[in-house]
Specification:
By secondary structure, the chain is α+β, with helices and mostly antiparallel strands. Helix content is about 30%, strand content about 20%. The chain has three domains: about 1-165, no CATH class; about 195-290 and about 345-450, no CATH class; about 455-560, no CATH class.
């Protein structure tokens, strides 16, 4: 293994040569406190930056066992180190030369504490993966600048962000403790028959639609209604009180701009742990809770939507429904059925993003348009059956139809962001003002069918490249020549999740999608492999830009592939 001094001298010798000469740097280098791995060298200064890793032995890094001995704590510690490196690198960026010269970057973290391939902490070492833009002037190597970058700037970053003695020990311990507490809260939901828990004092509003940090001005701390207040216990924070959202059918009601959707969005985000100070770090949700919505124009491949939609005009069956251009109602039906197929245990629904004709058909419309002329069975007539037949709860924001009072188990009203339990009032209103609407859709939810994907309907190739993947933020990815729109998959929070999902689709197609394996079985197998081997199993070489996702989002992405064919 070459040394830091050898690398420094080599970079000086490369000064002024053609950019391709940087390829000779690939390999491992022994620095005083760590090992530097140059895994991939960019082809020119305008290409994707070079991929590097640093590995610091625990003998040098010095992180106490207590910070990483549990999986959730190790993930939180790695998350903290990623943020420290990101913050420090961003604050000391000095672009020098053409293209991406001189830039050091790591995956940008969100407010969620996530398992990322960027950092890993074990008993042996701390490893961090990032990218560097090897400096150039035009397409000539700037060797002196490169030597300063790799042999001065990178070691300084390692010393400031990856050694325990350089960090704020109390802040770091609180960070890791907070993540462990969130795991503990979530682990108690099932035994308490809860879908979610929102702690007293939580700050739910965000600064804006593009800024997920907590609102700091005039934010009203959350306070549970007494009737829904539960007490859960954390290993570090002790007893925590807050609102338990029960299993079954829960309505969130209230006037416009009073916090209904804000509460639902906090519950959606509760499938992830959050950083201290986020305001939602003690808001937790069942890990298999899925936000579903209408999605006009999406592609559907062989989904049995017959529980919601019967035979269409011209006798078209909906037991294996396919379309390249779904309507609002057919897309929402498919989204629900696909979520169930992928293992969802709770649905999160907002009327604002739902198809009206899918959600409700009132008595007057039933009188005007008879059932034999209307193929849609509205969600109001299936939501209880979803729970009684399938064990799937629903949390529903509803501000426009009191008909749902008839089917709700719990009704929470938001008044200026303050929740109230109005279940008894809603039931009394339902008894007094009867809707007289007819229940539709039969006495049971209906048949659910597993599908098998035809592996050749997933083609990751493009031109002479056997695999071409591209992720664009959190709303789109490309597999080969096909783009997948993920804008309606609302629980994705980082672009690294989209990159990982793209890689997982190719991995599933290679190893787990067979003519005899159902889609749900294949996805479960992929998630098992990731749990056992890490995100690195998805790629041919180590990368630092992948972020863990749920099997539910992997299924959602595969289901939106327009070339998909199922049997």
């Amino acid at each position: 293994m070459a040394t830091q001094e050898v690398l420094y001298d080599q970079l000086y010798r490369l000064d002024g040569q053609g950019y391709g000469a940087y390829k000779s740097l690939k390999g491992e280098y022994d620095f005083e406190n760590f090992t530097l791995h140059i895994d991939h060298v960019q082809g020119d200064p305008f290409a994707a930056p070079s991929r590097v890793r640093v590995r610091v032995s625990q003998a040098v890094a010095g992180f106490p066992d207590s910070l990483w001995e549990l999986p959730c704590r190790a993930i939180a510690l790695a998350d903290y180190l990623t943020r420290e490196f990101y913050r420090t690198a961003e604050g000391s960026q000095q672009k020098s030369g053409s293209g991406k010269s001189g830039l050091i970057s790591i995956v940008r973290p969100s407010q969620a504490v996530l398992n990322r391939s960027a950092a890993r902490v074990t008993a042996e070492a701390v490893e961090l993966r990032f990218t560097v833009g090897l400096p150039a002037f035009g397409r000539r190597i700037a060797g002196r600048q490169a030597a300063e970058l790799l042999c001065r700037s990178v070691p300084a970053l390692v010393t400031r962000t990856l050694l325990y003695k350089a960090l704020n020990a109390a802040e770091l311990e609180h960070y890791v403790d907070t993540a462990e507490d969130a795991e503990a809260l979530r682990s108690q939901l099932s035994a308490r028959n809860l879908v979610a828990f929102v702690a007293d004092g939580a700050i739910l509003p965000r600064r804006s639609g593009v800024d997920e940090r907590p609102l700091t001005d005039q934010a009203i701390p959350f306070k549970s209604p007494d009737s829904l207040r539960v007490t859960l216990r954390c290993p570090h924070a002790g007893e925590v009180t807050g609102m338990g959202v029960p299993q079954g059918i829960t309505l969130i009601v209230g006037g416009g701009y009073h916090g209904k959707s804000t509460l639902l969005r906090a519950i959606e985000a509760g499938v992830y742990n959050h950083v201290p100070g986020d305001g939602r770090h003690q808001v937790v949700t069942d890990l298999a809770a899925v936000k579903v919505r209408a999605e006009d124009g999406r592609s559907i491949a062989g989904v049995n939507i017959s529980p919601f939609i019967g035979s269409l005009p011209q006798g078209k069956s909906t037991q294996r429904f396919s379309t390249p251009n779904a309507s609002g109602s057919t897309s929402q039906a498919a989204n629900i059925v696909e979520a169930i197929e992928a293992g969802a245990t709770a649905l999160l629904v907002d009327e604002d993003t739902s198809a009206t004709n899918f959600m409700i058909r009132d008595r007057r419309m039933q009188a005007l348009i008879s059932k034999d002329r209307e193929p849609i069975t509205p969600f109001i007539d299936k939501v209880q059956q979803l729970y009684t037949d399938c064990g799937i709860s629903t949390v529903l924001v509803m501000g426009g139809s009191g008909d749902y009072f008839d089917v709700a188990d719990t009704v929470i009203a938001l008044d200026e962001f303050v929740p109230q339990d109005v279940t008894d009032q809603a039931k009394a209103i339902a008894a007094k003002f009867r809707t007289e609407r007819d229940r539709e859709g039969g006495q049971s939810f209906g048949t659910l069918s597993l599908r098998t994907v035809q592996p050749d309907s997933i083609d990751p190739s493009q031109g002479n490249r056997s695999v071409k993947l591209r992720a664009r933020d959190v709303d789109q990815l490309q597999i080969g020549t096909e783009a997948i729109d993920l804008s309606a998959v609302e629980q994705l929070v980082e672009s690294g999740q989209v990159r990982a999902i793209a890689a997982a689709i190719v991995y599933a197609q290679r190893y787990h999608l067979t003519a005899t394996t159902s889609l749900s079985e294949a996805i479960a197998a992929v998630m098992t492999d990731i749990a056992q081997y890490g995100l690195d199993c998805l790629t041919e070489w180590p990368t630092g830009d992948l972020v863990c996702f749920r099997g539910l989002e992997l299924a959602a992405a595969i289901n939106r592939l327009r070339t998909l064919r199922t049997v």
